[in-house]
Amino acid sequence: MALVTRLAPLAAAAFVALTAPAGGVPVPAGLAAPSTAPDGRHAVAWEVVPAQEHPVTVVESSPVDQVQPRVRTLNYLKPGDRIEERWPRLFRADGTEVPIDRASFTTPWSNDGLRWAADGRSFTFVHNRRGHQLLRLVSVDAATGAVRTVAEETSPTFVDYAHKTWMHWLAEDELLWMSERDGWNHVYLIDVPTGSVRRQVTRGRWMVRSVESVDAAARTVTLRAMGIDAAQDPCFEHWMRVPIDGGEAVRLTRGDGTHRVEWSPGGRWYVDTWSRVDLPPVKELRDGHDGSLVCELGRGSVATQLDAGRVLPERFVAKGRDGVTDIHGVIFRPRGTANDPTPRPVLECVYAGPQDFHATKEWSPNHGLQAIADAGFVLVQVDGMGTNWRGKAFHDVCWKNLKDAGFPDRIAWIRAAAATRPWMDLSRVGIYGGSAGGQSAMRALIDHADFYSVAVADCGCHDNRMDKAWWNELWMGWPVDESYERSSNAADAARLRGRLMLVVGELDENVDPASTMQASAALVRAGILHELVVVPGAGHGAAETPYGYRKRLGFLRRHLLGAPE
Q1: How many CB atoms lie within 10 A of CB 297?
Q2: Is 382:459 a contact under the CB 8 Å cutoff?
Q3: Confidence of residue 564 (pLDDT cuts 50, 70, 90)
């Protein structure tokens, strides 16, 4: 039966029809995803304020099924655009609304993750405030609408909600919660009634990468961790089991490499497979209880590849810009050059997106970087400050500062490597990358042309105001301010020096292809010669298409090796 009632959030004279599924709590028509409390006395439905539309139009110049071009339009929100907002609305069983004060969850990027308490007396949801400097678990009393905070994260820079938010309800009164509040990503046990921390479950100058499982009966968490062994690369992944209520952690992996674990049914045993970029995989059978080694199952061999002339990638560590922090990277040499001292140009493959680390850690028998090195380059890949999983201070370098891209650390690392490797010719240094790496590759010739002389930038987000809202607002903040222009390659194009190739796919739906065209236009206005390669029919990563790959490699060979294209 339809009911009619006055709703407090609406205008005084407004009346809205209420509807309810059989046996449910009636809520106003037009609200989304109603959720009824376990005791049936209340329900929450979502008021949704839609996002604006931001059409981005691309032209498929050469469709295979017709002569005329085809226009494509996609809705693509950019930084600063009006996003969708979702607001919880609370109703009693008779359809009357319980007002909720929204002050604790204003200007949301998102309000979601609704969960009712088992007794139906309250519900919680996660509030992520736009600008990503506050993430809060909000609890609402069903009888009164009173709002309180159960747990929250705040940061003067950013809360990495996309990669370091996790929670798990152990009971109605306790919750496991992930946090970087001490500068490292760890797990905390929260007392739900008071919102206080009962104990810090994991602790130290290392990072919880992810919680893989929770054993509520045994009161343990099994997790992947990074940086737990000071003698190893801090981005190697290890596994460990940690007691929630205190006691010794059980380390499940130990080999000097990055680890993948496969559990037997029931978890009595597991196979640990670990490797490094310079070490083929090792497989071990281990005891699921204490992590002890049962036996080694197998170990890869590189003999055949070495016989074919492959030079194993070399890991290298040097100090970063501060003279203190270790910076890790890898060096690839052309096949057949293990004993060849001939100086060769250095080519850097760059991607410094703050969402992760990027220098390769695992073994690959046919690494794509090796194929480029084989063209005659000493190829390097390095993670500088601003990338993820090295602690909050290391990560925060990227905030409102994507143009930095770890350049001071990476350049210091390359110089240190070349100091003891005369076959690295620092008079010829090039760089290439795609997407955020494309932004960095062009930026190299704007801010660091004294070091880099050649760059290929593929599908770059050359101005962060032109790229997708979620990725850029996470690192550059909101509202959009002058920091966006400070990191814009288009704004700084007149300062570019060196040889640049811009590559773009005409159908890129990841990064607006107009971003590359605007960077090119700025160079044209400044009278700076460059090459612009538009790949018909290609999307994001146009330089990885067969044609784009050939154009990129030919450009690098021509300007770093003096070779014909």
Answers
A1: 12
A2: no
A3: confident
d(C-alpha 111, C-alpha 393), whole Å: 28
Q: Is the pLDDT of residue 15 over 50?
A: no
With contact defined as beta carbons under 8 Å apart, do 382 and 357 qualify? no
> What is residue 455's three-state secondary structure?
strand
Give Cα 330 to chain centroid, integer Å: 21
Contact residues for 125 (Cβ-Cβ < 8 A; gap 6+): 88, 111, 112, 113, 114, 115, 137, 138, 140
**Quick one: CA dihedral 372, 373, 378, 384, positive or negative?**
positive
How far is Cα 295 from Cα 297, in angstroms, rounded to an integer? 6
Q: What is the mean pLDDT of residues 436-463?
A: 98
Does 1 have pLDDT greater than 60? no
The residue among 255, 230, 252 whose CA lies nearest residue 242 is 252
How far apart (Å, rounded) are the C-alpha atoms in residues 342 and 185?
45
Q: Note the pLDDT tens digit of each residue in 384-396.
A: 999 999 999 999 9
pLDDT at 23 over 90: no
> What digits encode the pLDDT tens for the residues 177-213?
999 999 999 999 999 999 999 999 999 999 999 999 9
Which domains, ranges and CATH numbers included, belong to the chain? 50-298 (2.140.10.30), 304-561 (3.40.50.1820)
- The number of residues making up the chain comes to 565
Tokens of 219: 């009161």
Residue 439's alpha-carbon distances to 69, 142, 312, 334, 475, in angstroms, are 29, 49, 30, 27, 14
Cα gap 222→243, rounded to integer Å? 9
